[in-house]
Amino acid sequence: MKTSVLLSGLALACMAMTACSNESVLDEAAASKTIGFRSMVDKESRGSAGAITTSNIDFFRVFGYFRETGSTAAPTNIFDYVGVTKNASSVWEYDNLAYWAANKDYYFMAFSTNVMGVRPWTYTFPTTDVDTKLAAFDTNKGIGTLHMSNAGDGASYQPGVYDLVYAYATRTTDATISNSSNVNLSFNHLMSRVRFKLTNGIANSAYSIDVNNVKLTNTTAEGTYTFANPMEWTAGSGTTEINFPNDGATMASGANWTSPARFILPGTQNLHVSFDATIYVNGTQYTSGTVNVDLGNINFEIGHSYQFTASLNEDNISDDDAKPIKFSVTSVANWEDWSDTAMSL
């Protein structure tokens, strides 16, 4: 397809949307000495497959550490990749309960893709300068590093299908453990969210359009997040391709199709989108083509949503410039000369 046609005829616009915050709590604090959890998702994303929200989060993994209050020693690990699940009564549960101890400082890190059996991420607690990093725990919104692979594993999950959220919390106990309420976890999104909204821009109602094989290429395959302020990712090596499936819907004139949301690692990326489009006239295939568009360098921010929009028509789908059917009047035959016909009265 002609590059000039693509760039002028099919301009994809990008709109970044910061999802609104949500302060609902999933379960009430438990009055016991066991370490329990309650959870919410800040800046929750609404209406997207795969997006984790306060209402749908039902699983996370937690890491926890403690040491004597006032100590500078390395902390002891009390939770190590422990799965915490929401039961039918919206109470968060985990196996092998842990218990609060008196006069201790506790530090918690929690992560979720909302899928129990999939772990595209790896969390690492620091081994050097630990006391300084724990002192900055609240300022840096956590501690340690998180490595995330967004390339899929070729079997159990595909690239870009999982949202990733995290939470951090601290607690200091006194001599009587007067505060043994649940640990409040307010989860924040760590990924960027993308989708496409394509419109049938052909005015003639006889024309419909199918779109398939929507692919976003050159996205970052893996990255590492170091819990620090400001929040940012460091891209690793390699790129990956993310697919946006279509459910087979056909766009009538003026109608649009919105893809499911997918998730990419934040950071500046020079992305490319391609998809196959077929035009039908009253149900009969008219023309088809593959659309290719370079989106240019975009800085994708943590927790932001990006919707790419475009209007499709004959010019930006066909391999050649569209040639509309037009009409010209070349002549109108002259009437024969008048001839007299007498009438009998």
Can you describe this structure?
The protein is mainly beta. The chain folds into two domains: 139 residues, Immunoglobulin-like (Sandwich), CATH 2.60.40; 166 residues, Sandwich (Immunoglobulin-like). Helix content is 5%, strand content 44%. The chain contains three helices and 20 strands. The chain has a seven-stranded mixed β-sheet with strand order 2-10-9-6-3-4-5, with no helix packed on it. Strand 3 and strand 4 form a beta hairpin. The longest helix has 7 residues. It is elongated, with a radius of gyration of 29 Å. The N terminus is likely disordered.
Describe the structure using short key phrases.
single chain, 345 residues, mainly beta, Immunoglobulin-like, 2 domains, 5-stranded mixed sheet, 20 strands, 5% helix, elongated
Described by strand count, sense and barrel closure, the largest sheet is:
7 strands, mixed
Radius of gyration: 29 Å
Low-confidence stretches: 1-11, 15-32
Strand content of the residues, in percent? Answer: 35-45%
Regarding quaternary structure, how should these chains be classified? Answer: single chain
Average pLDDT level = 84
Helix content: under 10%
SSE series: HEEEEEEEHEEEEEEEEEEEEEH
Q: Terminal Cα separation, in Å?
A: 76 Å
Structural class: mainly beta
